[in-house]
Amino acid sequence: MNTRNAVAAVAVVAIILAASCVFLVGSNGHDEKWYNVDIIENVFPEYREQSATDNYYAYALNDVYRRAAASGDYESAYLIYYANSVNLHGDDMISGDIIAMLDKRTYPELGDSKVLAGYYDSLLDMTARNALGVDAIKAYVEEIDSITTTDQVVRYVATGGSAGMYNSIISLSRMIDDVDGNNAVTISVPVLPSMDENYQDASVEKNLELYGAMLELFPGIDGDSYIQAAVDYDRLIQNNATGESTQVMTYSEVAGSFAFASALEPYHEAGIDSYYSPDSGFYSTISESLTQDNLMMYKSMAMYDLLMDASKHLDEEVYEIRAEWLGEEYDVQESVKASLEDDWSHVAGMLVGKYYYATYVDAGLQAYCEELIAECLEAAKEYYDSVEWIGDATSAKIAQKIDGMTVRCLGPTAEQMAAYDYSSVKADSYYGMLAALRHANRAIDIAQASGDLRDQWKSDMLPHTYNMFYSVDDNSINILASYVRELLRGHDSSEREYILGTVGAAICHEITHGFDDMGADYDEKGRKRAGWLFTEEEKEVFDSKVDALADYIAGFYVGNGRYLSDHMIGEVMADMGGSAITYSMLGDGDARKFFSALVALEFFVLDKESYYERVDTDEHPPGMYRVNMEVQQMQEFFDAYGIGEGDNMYLAPEDRVSVWA
After folding, report:
1. Most exposed among 204, 246, 305, 605, judged by the fewest C-beta atoms under 10 Å?
2. Strand partners, 185
3. What is the pLDDT of residue 594?
């Protein structure tokens, strides 16, 4: 679940609008018009109130907006609407907390606090960074440029080079093997991606502009050759993509077929003997093409990775180059902040993350979250047991899978935290510190390789990342501290309806992913076993319900020639299942408060271009459709608001499509 929280003293926030934005839906009888209030441009110039019977999501957002609009202050109303957007401002609040922690040195001593302080001081010391300039990476650049043989390329990949760039040509990640449930290593092959989220769909040419500008900072480097080699490499890899993963291979099989097998040796020595790649074409091409004639292509990819990373972490001259590339006005403070945010999302992630958790999560919040999760897990078992088309044997399997779920709650335990020890990290410059942290992260990953991943706090689960997710490979629910903290900001545990409609619904959403159109094929140990869960008769019912849900989703026209797509099925299934399970926990609580909390959970607003890009690419529907679709499946919702036949929000029982009804 990737919604983001913004303020929140209330579960309901603001607005509806725009008579100019009437969106008609498809021909299958869905609502004729839902005013799309998830698009910024639709907020102005006019306010138009909606009723719960017409567009529930819009209705639930009216209260704050109405108070501002009543005075005629539309600008204030707009800002209130925008500021309350969960997904636009949650990360800003988290950033503020982290910066305050680092500035004030308020974090506890965990054994490597001096490393954290030293890292942060070196980041802020622009005088030292400017004095060093690009000399901070000169040795790393020369190391790559001096490569003359394929053996040296392989050695660079295996060691990460002096800069610790382990993911420049191949990327290794530990996970659970979905065949036998053992530890495995996934071998991925990076291509030429956009290196900044502002250019997620940028062409290769756009990225090469910055690559070329960085190469020009090193006069002894043949920049044109490096750029052409990068293009050649990208075309080679992209043209040989298959989209099909390899079979799981043993180390001896990999060693006999993969040119970069030496990079896997530390994992093999740690006891891992399962390896595979998500794309067999990438895997085979990168071995077959590693020849002396193609040497420059591999050198260029190593150089590209180094320089694109360094463009975010050097001196003011480089910051200005990057700002120009982004089309932004240069600001040194914003550039430093961007470096910091990049670091705590990647190379310094667990160093910052464990201190964030230790600083901001107290025993009370930890205990409360664990109790809520336990309650949700039990409620889910009871709910699935009540589904009429699921038999007793299948219900028992569902309960077994739920009981087997690994739950990572808020942050690492003391034992898990101890695995992330950075006390040995030392460097005399900011970029040197980043290189040392990269090497430390790889050593930590290898040190944990022989242990059970289910018992570990994985390095990609940063406590300060605003997210909660289900992982199919180890049947785990991962609830990150900042997600719960931001949803609870301004609220307390006595607000039962709000808690269930936000944190509770999010937890039950993730539980439901264990049984969606993909999760249902994996057992309690994360092994892929198609057919293990349902009987043949149940599978027919399941498939027919999934098909009906796909048709329902595809019937919503969202404007600009676009309909919602069936690539959203898994998320919509989880939304519908999660809210139904959580509602079953409500008891005598106020149903209206519960349903309005669902809006607070999913509320977001984007500009028109970003909105339609999200519709095209994101498996999560926009907020208005998420909420309205899930509540349309629940008779309790209709009862709470007196919605019936003839109302725009109403959906007849025979047309409801929740898979778990």
Report:
1. 204
2. 174, 275
3. 94
For the chain, residues with pLDDT lower than 70 are 1-33, 35, 40-49, 62-91, 178, 191-204
Nearest to 175, CA basis, from 267, 51, 49: 267
pLDDT given at position 113: 95
Whether cis (ω within 30° of 0) applies to the bond prior to 622 is no
Query: Cα dihedral angle (550, 554, 556, 558), rounded to 10 degrees?
Result: 130
Question: Mind giving me the DSSP string for 43-65?
Answer: TSS-B----TTT-HHHHHTHHHH
Instruction: Report the b/e string of 540-575 with b at 16+ CB within 10 A.
Output: ebbeebbeebbebbbbbbbbeeeebbbebbbbbbbb
SS3 211: helix
**Residues near 126 by beta carbon (within 8 Å), at least 6 away in sequence:** 315, 316, 332, 336
The answer for residues whose C-beta is within 8 angstroms of residue 16's C-beta and 6 or more apart is: 35, 37, 47, 48, 49, 50, 55, 58, 59, 61, 62, 65
Amino acid in the structure at residue 69? A
Class of domain 362-425+465-655: alpha beta
Nearest to 267 by CA among 343, 325, 187: 187
pLDDT in the model for residue 341: 92
Query: Which stretch of DSSP H or E encloses residue 408?
Result: strand 406-410
Q: For residues 227 and 301, is the Cβ–Cβ distance under 8 A?
A: no
pTM for this model (two decimals) = 0.86
Burial code (b: 16+ CB inside 10 Å, e: under 16) for 516-529 equals: bbebbbbbbbbbee
Query: Could you report the per-residue pLDDT of 331-367, keeping only the tens digit for each?
Result: 999 999 999 999 999 999 999 999 999 999 999 999 9
CATH 3.40.390.10 domain locations along the chain: 362-425+465-655
Angstrom CA distances, 345 to 66, 423, 556, stand at 38, 20, 35
Q: What is the CATH number of domain 134-313+426-456?
A: 1.10.1380.10
Name the segment(s) of the chain with CATH classification 1.10.1380.10. Answer: 134-313+426-456
Query: How would you list the strands of the sheet with 275-276, edge to edge?
Result: 171-176, 183-188, 275-276
